[in-house]
Structure formats: C-alpha cells, structure tokens
C-alpha cells in the first residue's frame, strides 16, 4: 500500500521529467528509487540525462580542441629547440664526445619513429638499421652525414 497520493506521485514524476530523480527527491521527500520506479511505470523519461550527455560531449570536444592546441604549441617549441641543436651541432660536433653524439642521434631517431607511428606512417626501419651500422662501424663520425641527419 502506497503512502503517497496520486497527486504527489504525479508532481514527483513531473519534476523528475524536467529536473531528474535527485531534484524530484529533494523537492518531494520521496526516495529517488521510488520516483524512478513511478516514472518508469508511467513511461516517463527525464530530459536531464540527455542534457548531461550533451554537456559531457561538448566538454569532450572542448578538451580535445585544447589538447590539439597544446600539442601544436609543443611541437612548435620542439621545432625551435631542434633548430638550435642543429645549429650548435654544426659548430660543436667535432669537439663533442662520441657518446654524446650517439645519444643525440639515438633520441632523434627514436622520436622520429614515435612521431611517424602517431601519424599512421610506417617508416622503413632500414634507415634505423643503416644508422646503427654506421655508428657501430667505428668510422669517424661526420655530423653532416645523411645517415645521422636524415638528409638535413
């Protein structure tokens, strides 16, 4: 037997439709589960969930746009730093320890491969193999060699 009148149920269902179960419960004092059960029995759906889903989708689009903006700025910063590194390599590579040059080359190749995979490219790994063969061969390292610079 119900402790609620038909008018109370109808009022709770109307609030549920426009504001959702939490607000309907707050305004009427009936439990959310009770109001939800009444609404389901009456075939009533709340519009709050669709508004929440739309707001969540909009926030997701905004967050994606922000991530893309930050990614673009990050790549611009990386490009500026790489330009400085390449200029300095032109001037200083002959005096740099081989270990430092190998680390620089390894990081650059690794990042190239990682970025290529992000763009859906599948770079030919023979370029990496060629670089490794060159570095391991014991030849004198030429910082301008295309096997190290990638043609730059």
Judging from the principal axes of the Cα atoms, what is the shape?
rod-shaped
What is the helical fraction, as a range of percent? over 70%
What number is the mean pLDDT? 81
The SSE string, one letter per element, is HHHHHHH
Counted beta strands: 0
Please report which band the strand proportion falls in: under 5%, 5-15%, 15-25%, 25-35%, 35-45% or over 45%: under 5%
The biggest sheet amounts to: none
Compute the number of helices: 7
SSE-based structural type: mainly alpha
Extract low-pLDDT stretches.
none
End-to-end distance, in Å? 83 Å
C-alpha Rg (nearest Å): 32 Å
Question: What does this protein look like?
Answer:
With 152 residues, the chain is mostly helical. The chain contains seven helices and no strands. It has helices spanning 6-19, 21-28, 32-42, 48-92, 98-118, 126-136, 146-149. Helix 2 crosses helix 3 (32-42). The chain is rod-shaped and about 95 Å long. The mean pLDDT is 81.
